[in-house]
Amino acid sequence: MNEIAIFAVIAAATGIAAFVQGAIGIGFALIVAPVMGFLRPDLLPIALLILMLPLNFYVGLRERDAIDWKGVGWISLGRLPGTFVGLWILVIMSAASLNQLIGASVVIAVLAALFAPVFHPRAGSCMAVGAITGVTETATGIGGPPLALLYQHRPGPILRSTIACCFLIGEIVSLIILAVAGQVHVDQLLWAIYLLPALAIGSVASRIVHHRIDAKRLRQGVLLFALVSGVLLLIPY
């Protein structure tokens, strides 16, 4: 596949993923990470983290009155040590091994979202989820499912806005640490910039319909796509 076709596929995935995340609160990384893993694994996790900055800022701002600030504080506190573990994993792994880690992370995240018991957003559980998210998002760009589990029984606006705020803080921390460690490259930055129009289209579309769509069915579709993609990434080539 040539570079133009690769860009078109990743841009389409970015637009769809932005729509899904804006509508239900998770899904962006679960859709984009496997696609990038197949086509341009060298872009992960940097391009993915950069793209999620404006997306989560937009979602958090849109429903800012519903943010659970106490939960955001505990999750962010727990995330910091997890971020350094994620950096260590990223540094020691080869590209092929990282691809398989992404696949495994996606599969585990989907299974957790489907079968894990209910989490209640208290201080201890918030810090534990923050630590897990710091590891997985810094290493692979995927961090949404643990946060979604934590808030899955709260109203939609609280889930979407609080997860977006946690992501925004965590992504800034992860990118700073990754940059200091020399893991950020120009090509990753350029790809993120080129994908911004697709991100904007998906985000705006989610604003129009996020009150009317069947969030349960959309979530099921995202999890099915992510599960299949994750399994395929686990297969060695």
From TrEMBL:
Source organism (scientific name): Modicisalibacter muralis
InterPro entries: TM_pro_TauE-like, TSUP
Family: Belongs to the 4-toluene sulfonate uptake permease (TSUP) (TC 2.A.102) family.
Any single Pfam family the record assigns to this protein: TauE
Name of the protein described by the UniProt record: Probable membrane transporter protein
Subcellular locations according to the entry: Cell membrane
Membrane topology: Multi-pass membrane protein
TM ranges: 7-31, 43-61, 73-95, 101-119, 162-182, 188-206, 218-235
Keyword tags: Cell membrane, Membrane, Transmembrane, Transmembrane helix, Transport
GO cellular component labels: plasma membrane
